[in-house]
Amino acid sequence: MSQHLLSIAVLALMFVVATVLPINMGVLAFVGAFLVGTFVAGMPAKAIFMGFPADLFLTLAGITYLFAVAQKNGTIDWLVRLSVRAVGGRIAAIPWIMFGIAALLTSVGAVSPAAVAIIAPIALGFAARHGINPLLMGLMVVHGAQGGGFSPMSIYGGITNKIVHKAGLPLNEMATAFASLGFNLAVAAGLFCLLGGLKLMRKPRRVAQPVAAMAGGMAMHEAFSARAMAGATVVAHLDDDASAHDARKDDAPGTFCQYLTVMGLVALGVLTLYFKLDIGFVSLTIALLLTLMAPNLQKEALNQISWPEIMLIVGVSTYVGVLEKMGTIAFVGNSVAGLTSPLMAALLLCFIGAVVSAFASSTAVLGSLIPLAVPFLQGGDVSAIGFIAAMAVSSTIVDVSPFSTNGALVLANAQGVDRQAFFRSLMVYGALVTLIAPVVLWFLFVVLGT
């Protein structure tokens, strides 16, 4: 077996092990870079270290640290409460509000699973309380998180843009960002129509509690004695007090620190998009200024940095750096291009990205598959910008699968559902997206864009 095939086999083994066992793929990739680089390619440690993406590490650490500070000082919760309050009694608007909040969080630097973990419990709680299809609500949250995931300030966007820039390919940051947002928005609109959103629009603004909850209350009323009913009266009084407390909390204005945090997020966008300053340094600077206002939050915020995701991303990037120095990237790209036409090679890579990402990490897929496409993209037969958009969205939109982190979070937070039936629904939908999305994206962004 040639060294190129052996290094590819090791990469495939990493995906399998990381999928079957709860082991961070970044750790596997660092070890793989050491073993393959040292014993297969005969590279010294210094050469292996050259593949470590220091700029990407700083970007990931900076934006996740800033987001952690914003979460710890209550800014995220405050913005969520304001957004939910803004819909008033318009129940049909709630799924779209959740879509928008999830998209906003990922667009300013939250990792997609973190955004879903924050919004899914709130969204699915609303679904149970107001009779909204939980599948609709859960999918709106995930597609929202994926829709905002390729802004220039986001994790996915940062990874993709740095890989494309390093490869010397044409770079259009906003093309990928709008492709992801537009496609996920279109899918969300279709889901809204198919899964009961139109019925929600015909509901009155004030919605009674679900029938199941009312029936449960009547059964409890009949079952308990007069003494239990007296106790229930006390509980109801406490619940009323709690509701009043929640209402006061929703009406409370933001704190000075929360206003500063919002200004910091706006400044992050202006400084990185308009003045082209490094997003890692800028986000760390803003986070430091915010922690000076509340130094006791620093330790908690540092603990909330997405170290597992950072380890995964920089580990895979380091291994890909070893493959590049070995010539494996060029070997695979030329082999794929030689097997079929460039258009079909692009479709094949989109399918591979979708299938692997449905079970493994999207960030790992982006970090490893985009470099494989560089050789045939440099030929000019396929639009590099269109392919990057198609590959990026294909590799992330499939995170609705219950085998991915986002899908699993939706499944875990669904309320009042048959878990097995809900799991099957997510699995069927995930399979359809995995099969259909790459073809549609390839046609829209590669075929029509070439």
TrEMBL record:
The record's Gene Ontology cellular component field reads: membrane
Localization: Membrane
Q: Which InterPro entries match?
A: Cit_transptr-like_dom (IPR004680), MatC_N (IPR009827)
- Keyword presence, Iron-sulfur: no
Record's bilayer topology term: Multi-pass membrane protein
Gene Ontology biological-process annotations: transmembrane transport
Key word Transmembrane helix present:
yes
Protein name in UniProt: Dicarboxylate carrier MatC N-terminal domain-containing protein
According to its UniProt entry, this protein's organism is Cupriavidus pauculus
